[in-house]
Structures are given as C-alpha cells and as structure tokens.
Amino acid sequence: MGTQRNGFTRRESCVLSVDVGTTSIRCHVYDRKANIRGSCTKKVSLLYPEPGRVEMDPEELWQGFVTVVKGAVQDSGLQMCQMEALGISTQRATFTTWDRQTGKTFHNFISWQDLRAAEMVRSWNSSCTMKAVHGVMKMLHFLTRQKRFLAASLVVFTPQHVSLRLAWALRNVPQLKQAVDEGTCLFGTIDTWLLYKLTKGSVHATDYSNASSTAIFDSYQMCWSGFLCSLLSLPLSILPRVHNTSHNFGSSDPSIFGVPIPITSLMADQQAAMFGECCFETGDVKITMGTGTFMDINTGNKPHTSVAGLYPLVGWKIGSEVVYLAEGNAAGTGTAIKWAQEIELFSDVKETDSMANSVKDSDGVCFVPSFSGLQAPLNDPKACAAFMGLKPSTTKSHLVRAILESIAFRNKQLFDVMLRETRIPIMKIRADGGVCTNDFIMQLTTDLLGRKISRPAHFDMSCLGAAFVAGLAVGYWKSKEELKKLQTTDRLFVPQSGKGDGCKDGVYKPVLQSWEEALQRSMHWYSQP
Prior knowledge:
Radius of gyration: 23 Å
Shape: globular
Helix content: 25-40%
C-alpha cells in the first residue's frame, strides 16, 4: 500500500461512490482500474404511514449514508485521507423540505413511489386550465415550430413527478407553508439533502441530471420552469441552485469523516448507470432491470420530444457538453419477482431460470406486471396486475415462466416505442441491475429485440457512473476513452440463430399477441390509481 519514509507515507488513492437506491444504500471504493477495493451496504427502511403513502426518515438516511462510507473505507483497508473524491448517485424524484436556519426537516422524504397526490393529478389533468395550456402550447408550436412547445402541449402530470407531490406538501404541512412565507424554506431531492448535510448547511445545490428528473425543470432552457412553478404555485425561492454534473460542490466537513473529502459529482441513478455503462455515443442504449425497468437512449445534444410517454432527461453536463437521454420505464420488474418469492412460487431467485426452462412454454398463462399501473406506451395508472389463462394443468414453473416472459415482453414494448419515436440508429445495448443476472430474461429479451446485449461483470452501474464523473473532475481518470478501456463484460447475449427480429421464428408472435390482449383486459381496472 505504499512506502513510508521520514514519516511521509506515499499511498495509492481511490475514489468513493455512494448509490442511494430504493431498497439499499451502497458505497464502493474504486481504484484506478475501476476495481472495487471495499464495499458496505445498508438497507433503506421505507415507511408506509397510510395506504398509498411511501416515505423515508431523512435522519435515518443520513446516518445510513455516513455508516456505509465509513464501512466501505474500513473494508478497503485504506484510510479516509486516501479518498480523492466522492461521487453520489441517488434515486430520483424523492424529496423533502427543511428549515434554512436549523436544518430541521418539515416532513419525511416523500418517495417517488408515493401516491398521495394521485387525486390532485387526476384533477389537474382533467382541468380546463390544462386544456387551455395544451391549446396555447400547440398554437405556439404551430407558429414557432419549436419542439419544446410541442412537448409542453403533450405533458400530463403523474404521481411520480415531484411537482404535484410538492404542491400537496405546501398545502397540507402547516410549518412548511409558514417557512415559505418567512423565506426560510429549502427544497431538495436526496442528493441536495445529503450535500447540505455533508457541508454542514453551507451548500444548497443539485445537478442537471437530478433537476431534470423532477418534472419542474425545463430541459430545453436548462433552468427551473418558471411557468410550471407559477401554474402550480411552487415558490422558485426554495429550489436549489443547479450545477454541472461534474463540479466541485464543496468538501465534506472534517468532523464527519475525519478529513474533508471533495464532493465532485451528484447524479441521478439512471443517468449515472448510463455513464457507468460508457453509453457516451448517440444511439447507445442502457436497460436497467431492478425495482423497475428503465430503458434509456442517448439522444446526443438535443432533448427528445415524445408523444408516447418517453421522458426527455438531461443525462449529464460536463463542461460545456450537455448529453440528453430519452427514457421509458416499466414499474414493478423486481417487485413482481419479489412478490412471487413471497407467495412461495420459489425459495431462491436463482431457481427461476431453471424453472422457466424446465417447461417448453407458459401453458398459455400470461402475467401482467402492473403493480403500479402501466407506463409507456399504454400509460394507464389504473391497470391491475394479473395472471390470465390459468388451467388445472398450470404449475409453479408455468407461473414463473409467465412472470419472466412478461419482463422481457415489456422490454420489447419499450424498445419498439424508442425505435419508432427517436428514429436514432442503435449503436449498442448494455444491461444492468439485479434482474439482469437472470439468463432466461436476458436471452429472451435479446431474441425479441433481435440485437446483441452486453451484461457487465459488476451490476452497480449507478455507483460506478458517479465514481467515473467524480474521478474525471479531479483528474483521477483523464478521459472517456480511458473509462471505456476499464469496461468489463460478463457475457454477450446474441440472438439465437434464425430467431431474431423480435419473432423468435414466429414462436413468440402468438404469445406476445396473447400477452398484449391480457394488458388490454387489465387496463382501467381500478376506479382510482
């Protein structure tokens, strides 16, 4: 680990990276070859105070963050003073608000999964105001041909957006309303809160990738949307300053880790995973299969205007370069597998691959994985999860195969929308996330898409992406070309001979059609989302 001479120790240095996910907080220590030298993980406790409400305790999250950083450095056998930089990747659109003077939060983190604003969403989407906004934006698009007006004419609110959940909090949390009136209120997603805590309240900031994921940021103008904030009565004064993704955000206070550590990247998790997969070129695609599935395509230096529910995001801004992504998502991917395990369809997730392959098909059973409604391209929050086509001959293996098939089918659906909407030639496809360890899902997705898909040797791509950006900021790594050389691949999945182009030689065509019929039957099931 270096040599000691005259009391001076020449030691190697590393980069720290933390990923705050939906189910866990993970910290890795990376060396120059992007090898993980030390790790620490802590579970995230989700709180469910009422049906439909999902929260996290801010103080518990902060303590968990500090614990995993200290644990990872200890696990590496290195010291805090050897950490050159810290990168932070976080789940998106989960937020809290706090007092500028005391740092005390007015409420728990309101998770991206929270549905408390569902009624406000329904009310706004059907309101005369929204109809008028859409009409005006269509007219502006007709007159100017600017795509940002077309995007605004198509926008609808969803419970996942920060906008209406924040509007709900401003209406229903008395201390928060008072603090806004007094000018002492601050708003932040998880990255902003952690940065505030790390710097002992001296920095209130976020980056472009996190800001663009809130739905109150204008990705075309690269600033908070004054129009939307005015429409929903959201005070601009409480929003954090937006910086480049690779930026010197300040250093952690020495009292926290014993030494100050430069914080040089804040990044939203899916954008960080895209960077970790080295999807730097226009047409590069990343599929993350974790709690949900997130499919992102690099659209270059222009945001994509969608008509079918793809979301335009800022991937990252490094120096003067801005990279945009278009994203489609399917909620409930990992949730479906976890649910199947809880009802004892299998005991170990590793069994699912062999169970699915032990039967030649699903015996006509279709599974609709819509525990949180259906996203693009159907966009129905009232859809229900369901098994359809059950028979006396149906076994556990058939049910497991139907669940795994449904995940691959949603991948195919999202990919088709992405191809149709963006018209960007696909350069490469990389997959990551816990679910991508399942060979059955990976091979079927590859066959249905008719494209090669690479699976990395390590799956914590969000952590790696934030580390890469942090390391670039301090010169630990010199260029994106250097990062590409560090990329590792566990396996390259290739479409099976004669079974590509999405049809698997016609074998899956009728199965896909049946599954799409099942989707239609599951739609509009609930009276409220």
